[in-house]
Design a protein that fits this description.
Elements: H1 17-71, E1 74-78, E2 82-86, E3 95-101, E4 106-111, E5 115-120, E6 122-130, E7 152-162, E8 169-179
Antiparallel strand pairs: 1-2, 2-3, 3-4, 4-5, 6-7, 7-8
Length: 183
């Protein structure tokens, strides 16, 4: 019995240069697309983490400010960057102050016992005072007030935080009008 080779060595050789170039080009395109998707996903997740963190801190600051305004007996003083509230009990020397520092970009809560930074990275913050209208003919239109006539306190702020390694920023804006309940 005699065995014959059906394929020669030349037929069993590796890839041709053309097949190798096409394979490398397709692999490069797939790796580039996968890398781009990975970087996009990484930035998106980092951005979402920024928004989530900003939202949590905004919610905490909003809850504290709202609670203090609703429980306040009156407004002691007010500027666009600071509001000082008379805290219970009546006749006491307890005050609560919220101060925006545009240089440090912070919003701070100060009471008779402590001082606490509520927000960092605050780009703008303002406080306004309003009184209740004599008649409720126009919805949501309140005349401006002085500290002695204030029944509503409005606040608004904007926080921005830069996303690490990029030019993009996450921004959060909060605003509300809160009624002083004890007045």
């Amino acid at each position: 019995m005699e065995f014959k080779r059906t394929k020669t060595r030349r037929d069993q050789a590796g890839f041709t240069i053309m097949e190798l170039l096409v394979g490398v080009a397709i692999s490069a395109l797939v790796l580039t697309a996968a890398g781009s998707f990975f970087l996009f996903s990484l930035r998106s997740f980092a951005s979402m983490a920024n928004y989530t963190d900003l939202n949590g801190k905004d919610r905490l600051a909003t809850d504290l400010i709202t609670r203090d305004i609703r429980n306040a007996l009156s407004v002691v003083s007010s500027t666009t960057n600071q509001i000082v509230l008379q805290a219970p009990p009546a006749g006491g020397a307890n005050t609560v102050a919220f101060t925006y520092n545009p240089t440090a970009r912070t919003l701070t809560r100060t009471d008779s016992n402590s001082s606490r930074i509520l927000l960092m990275g605050v780009r703008s913050c303002s406080f306004s005072l309003y009184q209740r209208p004599a008649t409720n003919t126009t919805y949501n239109v309140f005349p401006a007030a002085t500290p002695s006539t204030a029944k509503l306190v409005a606040y608004q702020w904007s926080c921005k935080r830069k996303l690490v390694g990029t030019q993009s920023e996450s921004e959060s804006v909060q605003m509300a009008k809160i009624s002083i309940r004890n007045e």
